[in-house]
Amino acid sequence: MKPIVYGLLASFFFAFTFIFNRAMEIEGGSWMWSASLRYIFMVPILWAVVGYRGGVTSLVREMRQHPFPWFLWSFVGFVLFYAPLTFAASFGPGWLIASTWQLVIIAGILLTPLFYKLVETASGPVLIREKLPVKGLLMSSIILLGVIFMQIEHAESLSFLTAVGCVATVMVAAFAYPLGNRKMMEMCGERLDAFQRTFGMTLATFPFWLILAGCGYVTEGAPSASQMIQSLIVAVSAGLIATVLFFWATDMVKANQQKLAAVEATQAGAVIFTLAGEVWFLSTPLPSFLSWMGIILVMSGMVLHSFLSRQKEEKIKTETKELTF
């Protein structure tokens, strides 16, 4: 249950991304500055945290041993995730981006067959391809159906270009985030904690963020004070707190693809938190009856995911006790 709670907390802080990115877009801020400033601000913050915990030396050693995988999966997990997500803010309001982002629920499950688990057999340990968790996919479909319900009324007011542009860019982010995270967990094992992994992925992609910031300066000029402050808030809330909480949650269940899918499904909570934040801060109209039905479906799907994971955990404990006796 603890990984689910951490996942929900992560979705709360991650909602700041959609709210502030949309606010910065409304104010006329460049998406390139919004994306790059978040990670530029994260470097000194994470350096201080990881340094205080005495983890910088071991992190640098790990990165030197596998430089290309670190760059590749960090690029996938951070750059191909956040750059498209920030760019998508120009296509519509935060609720639209947050809702489309829930493709990550399905994406995380569909990526399962790309990974292997080590199984002990009579002839020794063998790598076996993970199976697609059908029950998890069904639970995630309930969440996705709820998201669709929430946005049906809004979809009618969107142009075709807006809808396609939003879906295409966010779809890239939705597949990149779980893929990059899972590959990094697979590579790091138990040698690095969530703070170290976040810091390492930020360092590995830092050159790209500097280049993107340079492009933003050439095309749009320097960022405003307001955009810098909002980007700093996003860096702390979503970049640091949400990312570390999510990495902690996934670390706890990384050996179980069913539970991992359940944790990833908690990110649906970002839709509800984003909607509440936009109503509060950006004066977005309250949801209609149909949208409230969607919210109920989203919450029901998250509860079912949690129940399914708990049920499987209890079954494993029972089987273990039987084997012991």
TrEMBL record:
Q: Which residues form a coiled coil?
A: none
Q: Which organism is it from?
A: Bacillus songklensis
**Source taxonomy:** Bacteria, Bacillati, Bacillota, Bacilli, Bacillales
The UniProt keywords, alphabetically, are: Membrane, Transmembrane, Transmembrane helix
- The residue ranges crossing the membrane are 5-24, 30-50, 70-89, 95-116, 136-152, 158-177, 198-219, 231-249, 261-283, 289-308
Looking up InterPro entries in the UniProt record yields:
EmrE
This one is known as Multidrug resistance efflux transporter family protein
Q: Does the keyword Phosphoprotein apply?
A: no
Asked whether the UniProt record includes Transmembrane helix among its keywords, one would answer yes
What Pfam families does the record tag this protein with?
EmrE
